[in-house]
Amino acid sequence: MLTKRIIPCLDIKDGRTVKGVNFVDLRDAGDPVELATRYTLEGADELVFLDISATEQKRKTLADLVLRVAAALDIPFTVGGGISSVEDAKILLQNGADKVSINSAAVRRPELINELADAFGSQCVVVAIDAKEIEGQWFVHLVGGKVPTPIDLMDWAREAEIRGAGEILFTSMDHDGTKNGFANATLLELTQTVNIPIIASGGAGNTKHFVDAFKRGKADAALAASVFHFCEISIPQLKETLKKENIAIRIIK
Q1: Which end of the chain is more exposed for a tag (fewer CB within 10 A), N or C?
Q2: Can you give the residue range of the structural domain that contains 28?
Q3: Residue 22's pLDDT band (boundaries 50, 70, 90)?
């Protein structure tokens, strides 16, 4: 049985880690290199680094900061933000990223997924999807959730898989930062729609929410930010709880 993964997320703006609620009201959460070091020691399974203002500011991801964060890690490292070409991805992979995450650029030019999968392999390509429920249907949003589209979440997830995505990182904009739990019903539908791993994001507030994401949502991994950054949930204690719930998880002795 494949183990479930716990993934802290560093949302980066102006070189600092930040966290908000429903994609707004950002507050400082610390130095990304210090946090990366801490999460490695605490037993996180992977780390995600998202340069959240890169697309909006029409610039590339902070490659030098990626290099410094990667030097502090010995776990898989996914980087996203402002990636719109194979060359952009190549620079980040050379600087220490193990995978790249694409979002708005992939929606605008879906061929980018094919190009990255062909160049680096599907295992390196994560398609991040930010979606919001509107009158019972989930719609994809771009540019850090600021730009709505008429694209259905499930339709886009299917296309991403067909084009070569290795994983889907699904963030519920309605749940982001609320600490009320993940969008488990939608997670379950996603896992039944595609055959690649689904990373749950948006809504973690306590250990039970992670249990629910794995048991009810059938997620392959669960990502969170503020509850880890501000030490509201300890990763070692979370993993012990998951183990007691008979959820397969990697535990560092």
Answers
A1: C
A2: 5-244
A3: very low
45, 130, 176, 220: the catalytic one is 130
Q: Which of 11, 88, 176, 220 is catalytic?
A: 11
Contact 65, 92 (CB under 8 A): no
Is 11 in the active site? Answer: yes
Assigned domain for 183 exists: yes
Q: Please give the tally of structural domains in the chain.
A: 1
Active site residue 130: yes
Are 26 and 13 within 8 A, CB to CB? Answer: yes
> What one-character-per-residue DSSP string does 113-126 give?
HHHHHHHH-GGGEE
The string of pLDDT tens digits covering residues 114-128 is 999 999 999 999 999
- pTM for this one? 0.91
Work out the number of other CB atoms within 10 angstroms of the CB of residue 36: 24
Least confident of 7-16, 109-118, 127-136, 173-182: 7-16
